[in-house]
Amino acid sequence: MSTSSATRLRREEDVQKAYDIQVQAGLEGGARFTAVGLGLTIVAHYTWPAFRRQGRPFKAFLLSMFCVAGVVFGAERALIAHEAQRRLEENHMRRLARLDLTKQGIVPTETEIAKWREFNER
User: Fold this and answer.
1) Cys bridge to 70: 20, 29, 63, 108, which one at CB 3.0-4.6 A?
2) Cα separation of 61 and 63, whole Å?
3) Which of 41, 74, 77, 83 is nearest to 60 (CA)?
4) How far, in Å, CA of 71 to CA of 32, rounded?
5) What's the longest Cα–Cα distance across the chain?
6) How far is CA 47 from CA 43, 61, 66, 122, in A?
7) Are 41 and 63 in contact (CB under 8 A)?
8) Coil, helix or strand for 19?
9) Closest C-alpha to 71, from 39, 37, 23
10) Burial of 5 (0-12, 13-18, 19+ CB in 10 A)
């Protein structure tokens, strides 16, 4: 397997993992925000006469906005955390590669780092 195809495969796996993380976090965030929105809607319905006079479509719209906000914020928060973790892992790997290649007397170029990574992943 060539270096470019190994890199491409690794990136595709990273993209799929990030997508799975986003989907899971979006579902959890959506459920959490929907529960909060439902609770607030019930409390507002029984304590605020002006809200009680609003129709079901308006209340459903507010509840769906809570759900959408939960999906978006949950997925985004998880993706940012995942990207930060991947960046730390990548920086650590590159630091090790540069150190090892320098010890061997090789200039740590991008090509050499990619070769080092492929050799060490086996």
Assistant:
1) 29
2) 5
3) 41
4) 9
5) 78
6) 6, 19, 20, 65
7) yes
8) helix
9) 23
10) exposed
At 65-74, the pLDDT tens digits run 999 999 999 9
| Tokens 């990273």 -> residue | 14
pLDDT tens digits, residue range 20-67? Answer: 999 999 999 999 999 999 999 999 999 999 999 999 999 999 999 999
* pLDDT score, position 2: 58
DSSP string, 61-119: HHHHHHHHHHHHHHHHHHHHHHHHHHHHHHHHHHHHHHHHHHHTT----HHHHHHHHHH
Please report which confidence band the pLDDT of residue 117 belongs to, taking 50, 70 and 90 as the band edges: confident
Decide: pTM greater than 0.85. Answer: no
